[in-house]
Amino acid sequence: MGMELYLDLLSQPCRAVYIFAKKNNIPFEFKHVELFKGQHCREEFGKINILKKVPALKDGVFTLAESTAILLYLSRKYNTPDHWYPSDTQKRARVDEYLSWHHTNIRGNAGKTLWIKVLIPLFTGQTLPPEKLQEVMDELAISLKQFEEKFLQDKPFIVGSEISLADLMAIVELMQPIGVGCDIFEDRPKLSEWRNQVEEAVGKELFQEAHELILNIKELSNIQIDPQLKEHLAPVLRKMMK
Amino acid sequence: MERSFSSVCPLCSYSQGQVVSASTQHLSPCCSLCPAGRMGIELYLDLLSPPCRSVYIFVKKNNIPFTFKQMEVLKGQQHSVGFGKVNILRKVPALKDGGFTLAESPAILAYLSQKYKTPDHWYPLDMKKRARVDEYLSWQHSAIRPSVFKIFWLKVVFPLYMDQTAPEEKLQEALEDLAIPLKQLEEKFLQDKPFLVGNMISLADLVAFTDLMQLIAIGYNIFENMPKLVEWHNRVKKTVGKELFQEAHKVILNFQDLNSMLIEPQLKEQMKPRLLKMVA
Fold it and tell me: Domain range spanning residue A108?
């Protein structure tokens, strides 16, 4: 039995894992966990990942959660090209540094745009006041400024001249607001340039394939939401709507 | 082959009679023998901060020579021009190794473990064990850290800057948010193992331990009805060593002393919006 990757390409970290595995010709079975159908909440998926989150990996009896851990595990197991996670101590530290900072800075704010513009209205039937979105965009703007000034600077990629896991994690997250019509690359030429370079390094076809769902998210406005999922998410939604 | 150094290095305090294995990349804490040791690494730390404590404990436990650069975050020292050159993100911990600067405690810990070839159990070479450490270090960012940060800020920092206590409901809310992650820490990460990744302490335990100590130190019995976590906590504390634990946690354990800290009115004004947002 081969390696299984439990993914929903609506999720940013799932896209990072998907792109990485495909780009490096890593053999895996795509196990679709449909978030809208609440499949991640089910007991069966809980056996793969008790945290009930995607992405998740199953390699024989070994299961693993957290996209960062999964990406690093895959890079080691399949001996992927050095630039993804350099063996040079200082270059590697730069990737680790970004992957750590990413969690509380880019991740979260970028994803909230999808919640505010699409998911909350879908789940609750209510639209949020424009100030809510503006608040998130303002926070994101601060993170993007730090991204450009500290992590990118004048380099083509975060670590230097080649793409790494850091760029991959960043780009998939930043495509989330793009999917809902918040063009964060507009008026940010450096960031825009970096985005193009990352897309090219990944390969346009693979990049578009991975992002097809999120880029067409607005078409999902008529989707049926699993009632159990609605209930499960109620407290989270209430908090976001405050 | 082992060497012992009996002469005192003028630049670092670790060289007195220290026995160092020749197999380590960094040959010696004695600067006259090791070019890298001549400059040594600088660690910018405020032991009030859990990530700083995890780095501090790691370097001390592994006899990694370093210069302790004291930072006092509550006094706004991270906003200085000088520190901006070390870490433009203006956060602690931060590392400076010659011309190389590094932020983010998981990155710093991994860097130090690789550079100084620390014992394997801290960050195992075995792919699956290493993945378990990575998994915890990734998960904790959004699961444990934000609650720890919030509770500490509401309980200790808010009164310091705002001259009044934070609303109790907000504290209770933040404590409730911790319930599920603590359960997950016990059921997914610890299970029936002595430490988070296996039989020996790793970076994951260090990061988890120092984070949760923040709340224990300020008076919260977060492990109530969670005997497995209590045992784990005690086990980590013992492995770290009583003396080093006390040293690292002295500031947080004496958090009441912070009340006498003089904070500039300008800084108080600067922090007000952020603090008000936390209780909104």
Answer: 83-241
Average pLDDT over all residues of chain B: 89
- Whether A135 and A60 share a structural domain: no
- Nearest chain B residue to A142 by CA: give it: B89
CATH number of the domain residue A59 falls in = 3.40.30.10
Which among B128, B134, B138 has the least Cβ separation from residue A62?
B128
- pTM, rounded to two decimals: 0.91
Residue B11 has pLDDT above 70, yes or no: no
Task: Give the total number of structural domains in chain A.
Answer: 2
CA distances from A17 to A50, A55, A142 (A): 19, 8, 26
Please say which residue of A65, A82, A99 terminates a domain.
A82
- Rg for chain A (alpha carbons), in Å? 18
Residue of A64, A107, A146 lying closest to B135 (CB–CB)? A64
User: Across the interface, which of B106, B127, B130 has its CB nearest the CB of A100?
Assistant: B106
All residues of chain A having their beta carbon less than 8 Å from the beta carbon of residue B141 are 100, 103-104
**Quick one: A189 and A199 in the same domain?**
yes
B81-113 burial: b if 16+ Cβ within 10 Å, else e: eebeebbbbbbbbbbbbeeebbbbbbbbbbbbb
